[in-house]
Amino acid sequence: MSPPEYTKERRYIDEVLSIADGHLWIEGCDTVDIASQYGTPLYVMSETQLRANCRQLSEVFERYWSVGPVELLPSLKANYVMAVRQILNEEGLGCDVFGHGELQAALWSGVPGDKISVNGSAKSAPLIELAVSVGARITLDSERELDLVIAAAERQQKSANVRLRVRPDYLDLTVASDFFPTMTIRDAANIYKPGIEVSAAVRVGRRVLQHPNTQLTGLMTHLGRHSADPAVWATMARTFGSVVVQLADAWAPWRPLELDIGGGFPAPRDPSNPARLDAPPLECFAQSTTGALLDALHAGRMDPADVVLQIEPGRSLLANAGIHLSRVCHVKRQDRPVPRTWIELDTTEMFLADLFMEHAYFRPVFASQADAPCLEKVEIVGQSCNFDLLARDVEAPAIASGDVIAFLDTGAY
Fold first, then answer.
1. What is the pLDDT of residues 228-250, one digit of tens each?
2. How far apart are CA 379 and CA 390, in angstroms?
3. In the list 60, 301, 316, 360, which could disulfide-bond 286, CB 3.0-4.6 Å?
4. 15-43: buried (b, 16+ CB within 10 Å) or exposed (e) per residue?
5. pTM for the full predicted model
């Protein structure tokens, strides 16, 4: 749709979101007009923000990983929209997939097989067969999966590129996890199922190296969004680097071609932060992770020259490129036993998965009343029969049926 004329008074929230004429705008388009034209509930993505995020992530990590190339492999599950994936293709990004459906979707959307990492646990034989046939990287989660890879490679008379997903024991990560406040990050990471324990990885890696149809290209790990503290990420990267050295020593003279540190980097407004604080600048995470990883490799006398650094940005790449628009169906009030106002929307928590997975807070903006003064505290709820609490204790203006509300940072998950 063609953007109307800009108002002279415009207040920017970020690079693409702004408030003008009492409404929320995205890339110069009035979100209220978008909601009227396309209906609600509705996801809206900013191509401008998405492309800018791709380039910023690449530039920042390349600046600090100066020893070799950097590859971005964003997880397909972070945003399944094929048009979004095609933009990422145009930006030269690879892809991380989980399961047969995601691999097929990545291929349909034009991702080259050699730019795909087939990740996840309990991979099926048909998934492995397809991955080998298209030349995808296969990130092993168990020795059983290696048996499937060898069988598929022998049937197809092809060479399969294999990496191991490892589970370091993060002894030094003793701070609390944002997801499990009563657990340390070390304990929380240890209950997460994917990955091969290091001593078992030694055996699996030897088998990969010994078979003529399998190539061991690298190692992968994933901490997840347990913390937005760059020091925590530095500890993770340092621990992973030590594991890389340990395994390389066991497999000498093998040397990795690629090291994948996974994803979980927070988005700028960081909806997963329990204190609702913005994340530190992306540069802090790039500097802390790459610096700590390089330190660990150098300490183990491993030369990192020309090793490809891979990252799997989901939220940090996609979240702030999207908003979710919903329309007010009804405003419900009660005086007793406790005064309360519910703003009932035409969406539901089922469309905002991170409310469950990461207890996220998607900041609501009253898109059609963006400049109106706040008059009361409300609960913003969806239309399902669950609690469907989308945002609690929100300062709100006078809202009526038909008003539009936008939830920020919903471009991922």
1. 999 999 999 999 999 999 999 99
2. 8
3. 60
4. ebbbbbeebbbbeebbbbebbeeeebbbe
5. 0.93
